[in-house]
Amino acid sequence: MTEHETRPIRSSEDVVIVRQLVRAWAIRLGFSLVDQTKIVTAASELARNTVDYGGGGIVRLEALSDGRRIGLRLTFEDKGPGIEDLALALKDGYTSGGGLGLGLGGAKRLSNDFELVSKPGEGTRVSITRWR
Amino acid sequence: MDRIPILRMNEFLLVTIQVDMHDRLAMTLQDDLTEQIVRHRARGVLIDISSLEVVDSFIGRMIGNIAAMSRVLDAETVVVGMRPAVAITLVELGLSLPGVRTALSVDKGMDLLRTSFHGTPNGAS
Predict the structure, then answer these.
(1) Interface probe, candidates A17, A34, A37, chain B, greatest B C-beta count within 10 A
(2) Count of structural domains within chain A
(3) Contact between residue B54 and residue A107 where contact means Cβ atoms under 8 Å apart
(4) In terms of CB atoms within 10 Å, which end of chain A has fewer, N or C?
(5) Contact (CB, 8 A) for A79 and A89
(6) How far is A32 from A26, CA to CA, in rounded Å?
C-alpha cells in the first residue's frame, strides 16, 4: 500500500471524491465501520471548508504507525484568506459563511488528534488523525 | 446524475437517496421537494437514507431544512433508515436533527405519515 497520497480539492464534486478516497483508505487500514464513518464525515467537513473558505486546496492522506497502533492522518491545506480568530472558528454554531458552524469543531470531535494552523492572508492547514 | 427522483404516492412524496450527493445536488433536492409539495398538495414526505454511508453537516442541514419547509407548507417529513454508524457520527458531530421525525424503516415511516394524516396506519379515516 502506498503510504501517502495527495489530491486536489476544488469543487463540491471533489468533496465527494475525497469522501470515497478516505473511505477506501480507512477500509484498507482495517478501521471499524463506526470509525470509518467518523473519519469520512470529518474529511467531508474539512474538504468542504477547503472549497468554500479556502478557495480550493489539497488533501494529503498518510498511513501512520506508532509501533502499537495504525493511524490515518488527513491534512487539508489551502492558500485562502486564513482564519483571524482560531478559537472563534472552532466554536460550535459560529460561521463566517452560510453553514451551521459545526464543520471545524465537529471534525475535531470526530478525530483523535487535531491540529489547526492558519495565518490571515496566507492560508490554513488542518490536520486530523484517527487511530485504530 | 443531476437530480434525485421524487416519487408521488397519493398525498405523499417519496425520495430514496441512493447516491453520494455533492452539495449542489442536495440543494436541488431541497428546492424540488418544496416545489412538489406545493404543486401536488402533498401532506407528507418520506426520505429514505438507508443507502447513505455518510451524513455530514451539509446533508444534515438539508434534511432539517426540508422538514422545516414542509411543516410550513402543511406537510410532515419522516426520515427513515438511518444507519447506526451514521447516527453515532451525526450526534458526535453536534447534529441531533431537532424537529425531524424519524423511523427505522420505510414501512414504519409510512405508518407514521398515514397515522398523522388519516388517524390510522392503514390509511382508512
Answers:
(1) A37
(2) 1
(3) no
(4) N
(5) no
(6) 8
- Whether the pLDDT of residue A46 is over 60: the answer is yes
Q: What residues are paired with A9 via a beta bridge?
A: A57
Q: What is the pLDDT of residues B88-122, one digit of tens each?
A: 999 999 998 888 999 999 999 999 999 988 887 87
- Tens of pLDDT, residue by residue over A69-88, are 999 999 999 999 999 888 88
Q: What is the CATH number of the domain that holds A108?
A: 3.30.565.10
Is ipTM strictly over 0.85? yes
Chain B positions touching A110 (Cβ under 8 A) are 89, 92-93
Q: How far apart are CA A10 and CA A57, in angstroms?
A: 6
Pairwise CA distance, residues B41 & A96, whole Å: 37
The domain locations on chain B are: 6-118
> Do A59 and A48 meet the contact criterion of CB atoms below 8 Å apart?
no
- Using the Cβ of A92 and the Cβ atoms of chain B, whether some distance falls under 8 Å is answered with yes
| Domain around A28 | 4-131
Under CATH, what is the fold of the domain B6-118?
Transcription Regulator spoIIAA (3.30.750)
Question: Between chains, do A106 and B92 touch, taking CB under 8 Å as contact?
Answer: yes
